[in-house]
Design brief:
Elements lengths: L8 H16 L6 H17 L14 H15 L3 H6 L2
Length: 87
């Protein structure tokens, strides 16, 4: 076991040459991988729903708009209305 504990400068140089070769050779993704990635991205983009307009509609009272916004925030919070009622 003691013979493995020695420093070997020549071995370090050989190992460094392997690391240098790996740094010089940049990996290039295959065409199949790029096609699959782009197909997955298009599927995700197609599933995204556009956000609804949060502004109140014409003629809607401002108090109702504020109450709707507060209800939306509390309803989406962890615990929802039940969590707020327990406070």
């Amino acid at each position: 076991m003691a013979e493995h504990d020695r420093d070997d400068p020549a071995g370090d140089d050989r190992l460094e040459s392997f690391f240098a070769a790996a740094r010089d050779a940049a990996p290039v993704p295959g065409a199949g991988l790029l096609v699959r990635v782009l197909a997955g991205a298009e599927a995700v983009q197609g599933a995204v729903v556009a956000p609804q307009d949060a502004r109140p509609k014409r003629g809607q009272r401002w108090a109702a708009a504020i109450a709707g916004a507060v209800a939306s925030v509390i309803g989406d919070a962890p615990g929802g209305w039940r969590g707020l009622g327990g406070m």
